[in-house]
Structures are given as C-alpha cells and as structure tokens.
Fold this protein.
Amino acid sequence: MSDKNKDVLLDHDADGIREFDNDLPRWWLYGFYLTIVMSVLYLVNWHVLETPIIGDKGQVAEYEAEVALWAERAAAAPKKEMGALTVLTDAASLARGKEIFNGTDHLCATCHREDMGGMVGPNLTDDHWLHGCSVEEIVKNIVSGFPEMGMLPYGSSTKMSDDDLLKVASYIISMRGTNPPEPKPVDPERDVLCGAKEPS
Ligand code: HEC
C-alpha cells in the first residue's frame, strides 16, 4: 500500500462526511480488475460463442432443448379420443369451471385474464378462434396445451380430472360474447371464425 497522500483530507464535504484521498489497497484493485476480466470472458462465453467453452450448451441450444422437451411431453400427453361432449350449463358446474380458470393450480387467468379478454393467450370470448371453438376442441386444446407458444398441458401441466376439464371448457363457452374491455386483438393471419375451416 502506498503512503502517498496518506490521510490528507480532501476539501469537499457531503453532509459532514469527508474523505481521504488514499490509494485503494492493491488487493482490492486487483480483485476489481479480475471482475472486469471475468465479465468479458463471461460475455464472450455465453453471449457470443455458439458453443461455449465453459458449459455444455449455448443459450440458443438450451432454449431449443427445453422447447423440444415440452413438445415431447405434450405429444406424450394422453390423446383423448372423445365422443361428442355435452356442454354443461348448470350454475354449480360453471362456478367450478370459473374457480379452476381463475385459480392458481392451472394458471389459465394469468395468461387469458379473468374476464378472458386475453393477454399472453388469445381472447376466449369472441367468435375468432385459433384452434377451434367446439367443446371437444377446447377440451383437447386444454389437455395438450401449446407448449411452443407458452401454454403447457392443462395450462400449467398439472393434470385435472375429466370432470373438471368439461367444467372449465363449459365455463369458457359460457363467457362467449361477454365483450371484455380492451381484448387482445384478433390475429387476422391465424384467427378464424368459430366453426369455419381450421387453418392448417
Ligand atoms: C402461460 C400462458 C397460458 C396459460 C397458463 C394458459 N394459456 Fe391457454 N393459451 C395460451 C396461448 C399463448 C394460446 C395460443 C396458442 C397459439 O397461439 O396457438 C392459448 C390458447 C388457448 C386456447 C385455444 C384458443 C383458440 O383461439 O383456439 C384455449 C381454449 C385455452 N388456451 C384455454 C386455456 C385454459 C383453460 C387454461 C388453464 C387450464 C389456459 N389456457 C392456460 C397461453 C396460456
């Protein structure tokens, strides 16, 4: 440590706090330089190199592996071969559907909003649908989710009973035409009118 300027008070004053102009301790300075060197190595390793020197996968590969994993799980999710389902309209079933939709087990409302106007996920109350508006299609879409778009099977990959599935799907259907404020806009490329031919 150098003795240069040892304990010479500088003449500024911040609310009574004054300081010396001593050199920083060498060990501290070298530690600081080391963090600068490390940050450059880190940046190059993770953000520039496609295959990092440290770590086995780059971020792109890591992301793609994760997406592939979820796509695989979605494909492995039980494919429900459903006959025609009957939409439930009784108050108790719809109340249960609402409870599921807004609850924290399946997280539907975090992406579709409690009023279903849409946010991350599409508006579920209008006549435009991406994957079909029949109760069978809605049930199937809840079971398989759209992992590549962010919706896991059952909304959050926790299973729900067939009974609850039908209730939540029925609740969605019961919300049709409720015109929530500021809905997520229709995607003219993909959203098709309910009942119209599905986009391939
Ligand atoms: C992490 C966000 C997220 C969660 C949680 C989520 N969704 Fe979705 N949902 C989406 C996205 C995004 C889409 C659109 C997929 C696409 O673009 O192909 C979607 C699509 C849908 C569709 C098809 C809509 C259409 O237009 O065809 C239904 C039905 C649906 N979700 C119901 C649910 C239900 C019920 C739950 C809870 C069990 C749920 N979602 C949880 C994001 C989410």
In short: Residues 67 and 155 are 15 Å apart (CA to CA). The pocket of heme C is lined by residues 101, 106-108, 110-112, 120-122, 124, 129-132, 138, 141-142, 146, 149-151, 154-156, 168, 172 (CB under 6 Å).
